[in-house]
Write a structure and sequence with these properties.
The chain is mostly helical. 45% of the residues lie in helices and 0% in strands. The longest helix has 20 residues.
Amino acid sequence: MPTGFSTGNDFYDHIKSAFDTLYEEGEEGLPKMMTIGLHCRCIGKPGRFQGLKKFVEYIAAKEGVWVPTRTDIALHFREKFPYQKGHLAPGVMRAEAPNTISAWPTHKPVPV
């Protein structure tokens, strides 16, 4: 099976199918987040843009769907998890030493 998207409808079908699966799981009490990579190879053709436009219209009509910009996401995160010096945000794990609260590796000096 070839990869890639020949038409806007191919792209739309793919991302709609992914969204529908995640939306269904979210309705069961497990909210999801979906990102869409818009590299010019995937969406950089005028005929493919219609698939993206159709998809955004589709999800915007769904109840409980938030379609934010990167800035919106950053502002939301900052509001929900205010910066606390020396602490990671909830849910963020530290690979080097998961039992510590500092986000900086202990074997490196902390920059000032």
